[in-house]
Amino acid sequence: MPARTFNIADLFEAAVDEWPDREYVADENVKRTYAEMDRRANRLAHHLAAQGVKPGDHVGIYALNRVEWVEALWAIFKIRAVWININYRYVEDELAYLFGNADLTYLIVEPEYADRARAVQPDLPQLVMGPDFEAALAAQSDERDFGPRSNDDIYMLFTGGTTGMPKGVVWRHEDVVMALGGGVDITTGVRMTEPGQFVEKGRNGFHLCGLPIAPLMHGATQWSVMGQSFVGNKVILRAKFDPADVFRTIDAEKVNLVMITGDAMARPMLDHLVDHRGEYDLSSLFAVSSSAVLFSQACKDQFMDMFPNIVLTDAVGSSEGGANGITMVGKDAPKTPGLTVKAAPDSVVLGDDLRPVPAGVMGKLARTGNIPLRYHKDPEKSAATFVTGPDGTRYSIPGDFAVMQEDGSITLIGRGSVCINSGGEKIFPEEVENALKSHPEVFDAVVVGVPDERWGERVAAVVQARAGTKPNLESIQEHCRKHVAGYKVPRQLTLVDTMVRSPAGKSDYRWAKERAVEDAGR
After folding, report:
1. Which of 150, 256, 271, 363 ranks highest by number of CB atoms within 10 Å?
2. Residues 211, 245: Cα–Cα separation, whole Å
3. Is there a single domain that holds both residue 314 and residue 363?
4. Residues 435, 442 contacting (CB under 8 angstroms)
5. Does a structural domain hold residue 232?
6. Do 426 and 412 share a structural domain?
7. What is the rounded CA–CA span in Å between residue 87 and residue 90?
8. How many angstroms separate the CA atoms of 325 and 10, rounded?
9. Is 477 contained in some domain?
10. In this predicted structure, what is the pLDDT of residue 295?
11. End-to-end CA distance of the chain
12. Does 351 fall in a domain?
């Protein structure tokens, strides 16, 4: 049966009807065909409805990557409720904030996190992803007997960001399908006009197998699981990131596409492969795609050395704006101050007056068209991010600075919220981090600003060194001067044993700044 709307659940059910016996999703323990996933999601949907979950209610999913996570997301959408992604690394104070801010009415939780969840909110009804989960499914019908759904149903993505508490980004289903789910081709700009075009695309394409490595609480992995289903592809999930397991999985499952989040995953993968390349058959792999965080030129070059025929892509986007652009990258990629990408449809660079700036002028990266409605329960941040220009055009402006080039491409400069102001000069950490990561003794790096009596702020590098090395400030400075202007070169070095990042690989700038400020005071 063709999809009735661009509702996410409708699009999934259309794929089920087209490819019922095709394998859809697998983790370390179980595999599900499209029909099996649909039947189990139907049972869970009936259970949730029996527990009083209504359209528009918020249901949390608190677990590692596993097949049941996917069953839960489809069940929740089937009854027009809203699922809430929960960071499994949060401690009790952070969970208490998220549970309250998200207005949870029900929680589906992995067994190892159940006690923590009850300690945070003892009155919240829960379904544990263990025997309780299977018992709930066994007691319900697997019939798909739900009412009609709408393009206006809500999808919400809680994004942790790099500097603040998580924010819930509220999208209409149709808008997020266009912005993140493949409804608009980011390379050609062609927009789907009928929901049935997803199945048609799947009929005419290859049956691909993807391995999104980041946690399902991360938007890129959510959209790999959902968007790939619309066209009949297969997705492999792993509970946690392990470089050796990534390559074992590519070999065993004949994975075609691996999705990473920048250097946080690329570096340990590449380091492992240097010594173990001959242990795996990686001939099925033809694409690696990165999004969300810095993918340094050093790592891109090494990937191309190891896989000369691979298609390597680097995408720019955000939870608040969708995809802003994508680029095919390799050794011949331009060595610009930021990442230069082919602009996605509806992407633009705006000045402070909310008008597009001329080519070559730095402004704020924005997107129009299919954008979110608001932040959940935060009218102040909503008003600052989702704005209306002088001509009545509505924009999403997440906070990245960028330059529109003469050829229509966009060079991303960096995030305004972590921009360093040193003597009046704006310094974007990503540019300096990219330089640092090509240093032979640097494994990982985050750049922050620390207070300085003369300059206001000075550039500080927080570095995790490669095993067996101990870089010093002088060697760091000498290396960076070859890649960035003198005022951007780090004036302080803090060495750490382990870099703290989010599960999706995003830099924890608050933690890094605390470490650098602590060092500065010694």
Report:
1. 363
2. 11
3. yes
4. no
5. no
6. no
7. 6
8. 27
9. yes
10. 87
11. 68
12. yes
